[in-house]
Design goal:
homodimer; 434 Repressor (Amino-terminal Domain); Rossmann fold; 3 domains; four-stranded parallel sheet; 12 helices; DNA-binding; LacI family DNA-binding transcriptional regulator (chains A, B)
Chain lengths: ~350, ~350
DNA sequence: TTGTACGCGTTATCAG
DNA sequence: CTGATAACGCGTACAA
């Protein structure tokens, strides 16, 4: 019942009457080893079921090939897909991923970052929590020589690489589409304005109104309506107005759009004829609802890949600081039935 | 532009004219250090922004506090929640998680396992891919002193700890519910029979029929109908029978149930009056569809927690082999509109 | 081409 | 209670 000892380079060196360093060289493949001994080493390594001890290797090399990810939720489609995209690249490079959820809490986010610092990860990929305010926990990363890549929900004031989708542009397109379809009073559900993505989406909304000569009606703009429940409440209020909207752009998320649909259905309001609905993010369920929900696809998996490539191609080498540190992945409007007033 | 050197226990020892070992002791908290020096050490550790190097620590201690997870897909609710449950426990213990997706491919699964072996993780938590057949890659884990916990989709022949939900029981309950509601011809969509969970669910279906004196009608049982598309195809075929079913139990997944609903709606068949539908897993969207879908909640987050607790409470210590190695988390039938024939 | 020797940052085991 | 020292497994500059 004694502890299994894993085979090390010493074990295989001993067996071959060689030195451990030769084994190390042969295994890493870079340096000069004679073909014959190399073959011999590889063969017995396989026989002895050798696996490199990454802890020792990383310790020696001074870097652990691990990347930490911090996202609000792992089980939202946008993030799950982004992670899948990241994994696809890092997997090939032999890097590991440590995944943390902040659960939309800044406090928990700080803890996650702290854990990752303790793990001495090479890089942290972050999308901030909803109540993000203070960024001091991020500033400290530099002292620990940990790279930071922000995506989607970013702190703009921080000078890091960022991977974003064109939020303003997408919102502009969505609202323009609503206008084209003949909607006249378009409401906006907006998210916490401390997050730049939500400010940008609002800007896109405003720009589209302006371009088409529509007035900005303050009572049609609702703050902090970014969950299913909050979206529903906001919708109740909007529909109770003397002049209710004939379309609602849930710029915050598809979940909010779902809340809108809930209320519309409970009130027997016809979507899209009496009320147009547009969401954001292209969650899977938007295709399933009755009617299906128009939304914006952010190519989340592409975003993930971009992030990982950014790290390997630019940041890791990290000698010259780039001037352009922002990558934009252009999103796409996905038109579905919830806004098709004119078939 | 030179590389930041992280502070080590030597740095803080030097500053205090102490020995590194004292610092180590103070930091780990276990051993005997005088209160005063301990306080002093902790204080300057904080000042110097010290973080333990886990690579070095783990190397020295001979175990890396990391657990690997291999699941078919990270973005299915069941798995995402299970992972969240695992994380909740491991996070507190200071353990890290490495997450891999097999994408339902045995080949990829083997690669994932291999990567995790290379990482020398302490434990692997696995739910097998759909085309799982050979288990030799799992047998080799013991040689590397890596514990294995299987959950949900398990290889029964392997003598490991397993965390399961009562699949047979749940299927029995679901079919009994359909019978109670007055459905007479209940079809079954079943999954790949190489996976035990699907065999168990089928057994539950058969048992419920038997108990209620219903005949087993072979043509109502459809193999490999376990995605939305395959579920739809199977439904097309079922509905084309001379005597079509009046209820379909999509034992494989809610996705298959969704495929059933697709077809019913395209054919103008009333659910639940003309056709009852029951899924499996309680994916979020089952609540959103029209009508909402009756399904089975497996308490996936609980399953995750159980797995992690199993590791820390029993397996890690790992001296005495347990006789009972299977933990069952009892699932629950969630009745929704798709089966409520009698309101 | 191969061997020697050292250090990565910790912790465990001895002494003192 | 504290200090010195070895060892975890690997990679690499240097010497042979």
């Amino acid at each position: 019942m004694e502890k299994q000892k894993r085979t090390t380079i010493y074990d295989i060196a001993k067996k071959l009457n060689l030195n451990a360093s030769s084994v190390s060289r042969a295994l890493s493949g870079n340096s000069n080893v004679s073909e014959t001994t190399k073959a011999l080493i590889l063969k017995t390594a396989k026989e002895l079921n050798y696996r490199q001890n990454s802890m020792a290797s990383n310790l020696r090399k001074g870097e652990n090939q691990t990347i930490g990810i911090v996202v609000p939720r792992i089980n939202q489609n946008f993030f799950a897909n982004a992670i899948a995209g990241i994994e696809e690249v890092t997997y090939q490079k032999g890097y590991n991923l440590i995944i943390c959820q902040s659960n939309e809490s800044a406090e928990r986010e700080i803890k996650c970052i702290d854990t990752l610092i303790n793990q001495h990860v090479s890089c942290i990929i972050l999308s901030t929590s909803a109540d993000f305010e203070d960024n001091s926990h991020l500033k400290s990363l530099a002292e620990h020589d940990i790279k930071l890549i922000q995506f989607d929900r970013v702190d703009e004031t921080l000078d890091t690489y960022k991977v974003l989708s064109g939020n303003e542009e997408a919102a502009f397109e969505a609202v323009s589409h609503l206008i084209e379809q003949g909607y006249k009073r378009i409401a906006l559900l907006e998210g916490p304005q401390n997050l730049s993505i939500f400010r940008e989406r609002k800007a896109g909304y405003l720009a589209a109104l302006k371009k088409n000569g529509f007035p900005v009606i303050k009572e049609l703009i609702r703050e902090n309506a970014w969950t299913r429940e909050l979206g529903a409440i906001a919708t109740e209020n909007l529909l109770a107005l003397p002049e209710p909207p004939d379309a609602i752009f849930a710029s915050t998320s598809d979940f909010a759009a779902l809340g809108v649909l809930d209320v519309a259905q409970s009130k027997g309001i016809n979507v899209p004829q009496q009320l147009g609905i547009c969401g954001f993010s292209n969650e899977d369920f938007t295709e399933i609802t009755q009617p299906s929900i128009t939304t914006i696809d952010q190519f989340s998996k592409e975003i993930g890949k971009s992030i990982a490539n950014l790290y390997f191609q630019k940041i890791k080498k990290g000698t010259v600081a780039d001037l352009i540190k922002v990558v934009n992945i252009k999103p796409k409007l996905v038109v579905r039935n919830s806004t098709l007033k004119n078939g």
